[in-house]
Amino acid sequence: MIVGILSDTHGRADMAALAVAKLLEHKAEYLVHCGDVGGPEVLDTLAGHPAMFVFGNNDDDADDLAKYAKILGIACGGRHGKLAFAGKRAVVTHGDDQRLIHRLIAEQQIDYLFLGHTHQKLDRREGRVRIINPGALHRASVKTIAVLNTESDDLQFLAVPDKGR
Prior knowledge:
By secondary structure, the chain is α/β, with parallel strands linked by helices. The protein has four helices and eleven strands; from the N terminus they run βαβαβαβββαβββββ.
């Protein structure tokens, strides 16, 4: 499975649209948004594709986002969502709940932990758990996303040129 990962759009639907297009160019079969969506327009960019998002610490309109996502057919993982890809298990969270992150790493029950929040890309292993932060599409000097092949475990970070603000 090719998983496209993005995070921290903070309402930048223009950047989300560019990111989704780039992820699809790289054959992403499933899209994951790691929170701080920032508005329904960002969810529009995920519509029509298998996708999940979680809430970030700046998603004050969580109830509205969840309702809108349901209309669009996008999975809402709440504060943290669980996924499985051909025997590989993943948890998606925003990254602002350090207790959850420490617990998931200590338990060593998942293969991947997808998160955002720091606006900095990250690829690190702690035991069995591979922690992946795609970077951010807002308030980052270089806007980045990530593509993960869960079969080969290959990860690629991709820059997304900021054509807007």
